[in-house]
Amino acid sequence: MFKWLRDYLYFLWRCFVISFVGEPLFYIWMTFLTCLALIGLNAYCKQLVHGLMMTGMTDHVSWGLYIANFTYLVGMAAAAVMLVIPAYVYKRHDVHEITIFGELFAIASIVMCLLFVTVDLGRPDRFWHLIPGIGRFNFPISMLSWDVVVLNVYLFINLHITGYLLYMRYLGREPNKWLYLPFVFLSIAWAVSIHTVTAFLLAGFAARPFWNTAVMGPRFIASAFAAGPAVIIITIQLIQKVFRYRTSIEAIYLLRRIVQVSMIINMFLLLNEVFKEFYTDALHNASARYLFFGLHGHDALVPWIWTALAMNTVSLILLMSPWTRRMVPLNIACLLLIVGIWIEKGMGLIVPGFIPNPLGEIVEYVPTWNEILICVGIWAVGAIIYTILLRCTTPILKGKLKINLKYTQRNVSY
Amino acid sequence: MTDKSDQHKCGCGKNNGDCESHRDDPGLTPVSRRDFLKRSAVIGSGAAALIAAMSPLRLLKETITAEEFVQRHYKEMSKEELDKVIARISAKVRDRFGVTPRLRDVKPMDGVEYVYALNLSRCNGSRRCVHACVNENNQSRSPEIQYISVFKMPKGTMDMEQGTRHYDPEQVPEDDSYYLPVQCQQCENPPCVKACPVEATWQEKDGITVIDYNWCIGCRYCEAACPYWARRFNFTEPDIPKERLNPDMAYLSNRPRPKGVVEKCHFCLHRTREGRLPACLEACPTGARIFGNILDPESEVSYVLKKKRVFILKEEAGTLPRFFYFFDK
Amino acid sequence: MVGSNSRTTFPIWWIAIVFFALAVTFVADIWGTKRAVIRHEPVASRHFDPAPVRTPLIEPEYVYQGKLYRCNDCHATLEPSTIQKSYFSSHPDVILEHGANNHCQTCHNRNNMDMLVDLNRNDVPFAQSQRSCLQCHGPIYRDWERGLHGRMNNYWDDERGVVRRLTCVACHNPHQPVFAPMKPAPGPHVRQYRDFLKSISTENADHDG
After folding, report:
1. Cross-chain Cβ contact B303/C179 below 8 Å
2. C205: pLDDT strictly greater than 60
3. Quick check: B91 and B103 in contact, CB under 8 A?
4. Nearest by CB: C32 against A23, A361, A369
5. Does the beta-carbon distance from A35 to C193 stay under 8 Å?
6. Assigned domain for A323 exists
7. Are A57 and C205 inside 8 Å of each other by CB?
8. What's phi and psi for C195, nearest 5 deg?
9. Per the CB < 8 Å rule, is A373 touching C32?
10. pLDDT value for C195
11. Residue A334 is assigned to a structural domain of this protein
């Protein structure tokens, strides 16, 4: 009677068990990540006790590393769509088989996003005020309430698609198109929306001229579609090596093409922004002046943004050259781009928005160790989640982990 | 939680990562005593590390009671519920400060909309308003929270970036400067209210934008949205000297705030809604501050708006402030 | 990678050891930053005292060598000086710097020194000194009457309490009417990034607004 439920629970149990089994490298990796996560937890407990004074944030710079990472990771999550579109819209079969890794990456990214938002809250105990129906949700006026909705829905869409497809593979059954294809196409629109809404979150206020720009949305999308596929290029190779899961080189070349184009658009939009700020040369470019050249002797971010620009430029040149058809230069280009965009979009976008503050006062921001450890901890949690998801997924895809017919026919209860 | 014995048995060699496929049920296989010990050691040390990692929580001073946790939004509470909450907060204040506060909920008056006007020709930058406000509204002394920022501006500009809050001459006013105090402008179109994801801040009918400190989740989005830098966040438990506590309190205004919530100027609503003048005005030595009801055509502020050339800060932000500035000579 | 004999060669004990060592570091509290709030003493109460800068003279009284006199106690017999400030032998504290108004009798009734006068030589009691001031300062007086110049105290709403309007002399010394400069109250504390960098490893920001 409850056979389907029993099968499903058994599937989850087997996934759970398999998450703790692996080669020595797997143990070392997971122990390392667990340690980092615990260190982050320790730092977060301190923050819970003493408040956000344990961070480098002030009333002047009221958002810092947490929201910077959040913004970046929303982009990472949205980037999964760059695998879904070729696979489902353009029917690229070589991409189809790696799409699921992109979707799993999106799940891990969204979980990290939600964690970064949680640690940024002054009153995490009041999280339930955000739950529609129980709390008091300022929808559709507040952009943050939009973000809560789109992020959670995106998480569920991806959990549903990957969970359903994997479970069908586990059962050895053909998936029902009606049960997942509509969600796949919904996820395409949704991926764009999560990052657009996050851009609107920043772009919506006259108080911060640095953010109040129409190219914020396009810039977010372009940078996400560059950095996200770059991460996936590297992960696919790792999956090939570690889990011995074969993927075609053509899929990676397609991703390389996507990163190329997105990066060109990203740099172009950045150029537009820079032109508008510096050619106009009106008072509202104070934040941009602070970011690129320093303002009244305050120049904490100047080395960062120029490093980021250099990294982005080098990686763009590399990507445009035929060199990167080889894996090592491609990986170098991808790493440069991932770090470059992280700086540009995280520290280089969130922090200067607050400097100078709306009343023209300059107070710089530097994260504390506690804050950095919490961020590291959250990244470790994300890596743990992604590793476990891959650990369970690859045997299923390879057909090694599947329902045991003999077992399901036995009538045992446990 | 490792299960090595199975891997050993199945002997699937280099594919040991996937060897579960050979098994019936990894959870049911009997484990050897040695494996059991190993597993216990890993789980035990893992648990120890987890508990040790969470050990800073033992320093948590304020514990959140179930009652506080489920407390509803200010606007959703009935009179009785609110009375209970007020009694609870009063008891907390008494425990912490040894003073029984006169804590109550003050509702807006009918036919009243507050407007502030500030005569920049008179302001001499003495910062009396800043400290009167801190004292009246039980703001944290360390870390320091102040609702009013007085800017010393060089004559000949309205560019805030050229001003500074940091001046300390022997005497004010200085010849080359004028002084521009900025606090919450009580906008008619407040971006902070738009920003709040949980409606913890809203505009009341007398024009004052208030915060329910028991509903705010501390996301600081309102702080990013405010063009006047009027909002302050309690980065830690506010520190108020016992002897300086002002026991005249209202729920939506100057009761001591908890850690992790946003606060801001509320035009001293516990005073002004009972007809009194705000603390910053009463402390102003030069009489630069003018406060009153704009709906009353005979009021002082109505006269100012009619007779003086007033202006507002950051008009381009479209916030429609209820705080007007003017020069008078 | 280790093969089928992984069970015997792969020491799982080290995971327990790593976790245990980590637990010790947590107990020793070596990670992250310590709580550090810079203490600020509360400012002196004179910095927010709502009392006006002057205590105006409501009665025509004068303290001379520790004794209180009514003005007419002396001026019944002593003719007040008609000319300049340098002759004020009995009033060393009175320095007349009132612009073009440099004669005592412009405001004081020289026939009855317990009274002030207006330009029509009508008596004005000390408690209503603004009636003298308005003679020359018409526009300012009009603003003051409408609550625009000068300060109010207590209530804005006259239905609920007394609206107390301070008079001219509560802020202006009639002999030197320019509002006196004053020492500003302490300014805000903000620590800057450079000081902060020096202490980054041990302290967190002090978060002063």
Report:
1. no
2. no
3. no
4. A369
5. no
6. no
7. yes
8. -65, -35
9. yes
10. 53
11. no
Least reliable range by pLDDT among A144-153, A242-251, A306-315, B45-54:
A242-251
Angle between helices A65-78 and A143-171 (to 10 degrees): 50
A366:C10 CB<8 A: no
Domain contains A286: no
**Cα gap A128→A109, rounded to integer Å:** 22
Which pLDDT value is given to residue A405?
Answer: 65
pLDDT in tens, A359-404: 999 888 888 899 999 999 999 999 999 999 999 999 999 888 888 7
Whether the CB-CB separation of C95 and C176 falls below 8 Å is answered with yes
| Predicted local confidence at residue C82, as pLDDT | 65
Question: What is the rounded CA–CA span in Å between residue B169 and residue B152?
Answer: 11
Domain-located, residue C157: yes
More confident residue, C55 or B278: B278
Partner residue facing B128 (CB), from C6, C29, C185: C185
Smallest Cα–Cα separation from A36: which of B181, B195, B216, C19?
A: C19
Q: Best interface-test mutation with A: which of B159, B219, B315, B323 has the largest number of A CBs within 10 A?
A: B219
pLDDT in tens, A51-61: 998 898 999 99
Architecture (CATH level 2) of domain B114-326: 2-Layer Sandwich (3.30)
- Look at the block and give the residue holding tokens 């009677």: A1
In B120-275, alpha helices (H): 128-136, 191-195, 221-225, 269-272
What is the average pLDDT value for chain B, to the nearest integer?
89
- Res. B11 pLDDT band, cuts 50 70 90: very low
CB contact under 8 A, A358 and B160: yes
Residues in Cβ contact with B175 at an 8 Å cutoff, skipping those fewer than 6 apart:
none
Q: Which domain holds residue A70?
A: 3-267+367-404
* Phi, psi dihedrals of residue A312, rounded to the nearest 5°: -65, -40
Residue that the structure tokens 């805000």 belong to: C188
Size of interface B-C (CB pairs under 8 A): 213
Residue B7 has pLDDT above 50, yes or no: no
A56: which chain C residues are within 8 Å (Cβ-Cβ)?
196, 204-205
Our count of domains for chain A comes to: 1
pLDDT at residue number A387: 95
* C71 and C158, same domain (yes or no): yes
User: Of A12, A21, A134, which to mutate for an interface test with B (greatest number of B Cβ within 10 Å)?
Assistant: A21
A59 and C207 within 8 Å at the Cβ level: the answer is yes
CB contact B125 to C (< 8 Å): yes
Q: What is chain B's percent helix, strand, coil content, to nearest 5?
A: 35, 15, 50
Closest by CA position to A65, among listed A33, A43, A45, A81: A43
- State the burial class of residue B114 (Cβ atoms within 10 Å of its Cβ: 0-12, 13-18, 19+): buried
* Pair (C93, C26) in one structural domain: no
For residues B25 and A341, what is the distance between their CA atoms, to the nearest angstrom? Answer: 46
Residue of C nearest to B46 (CA): C19
Q: Are strands B102-104 and B248-250 parallel, antiparallel or unpaired?
A: parallel
Chain C residues whose CB is inside 8 A of the A35 CB are 18-19, 22
Residue C181 lies in a domain: no
- Give the range of the structural domain holding residue C199, as residue numbers without chain letter: 12-40+189-209
Domain with A196 in it: what CATH number? 1.20.1630
Q: Could you tell me which chain A residue has the CA closest to the CA of C28?
A: A42
Q: Looking up tokens 């959140």, which residue turns up? A: B64
C15-59 per-position pLDDT tens digit: 999 999 999 999 998 888 877 777 888 899 999 999 988 888 888
**A125 in contact with chain B, both atoms CB, cutoff 8 A:** yes
Q: Return the structure tokens found at A173.
A: 């059954």
Q: Is A414 a residue whose pLDDT tops 50?
A: no
C-beta separation of C93 from C99 below 8 A: no
- Pair C167, C129: CB distance under 8 Å: yes
Residue C196 has pLDDT above 80, yes or no: no
Whether the pLDDT of residue B47 is over 90: the answer is yes
Q: How far is A383 from chain B (nearest CA, A)?
A: 18
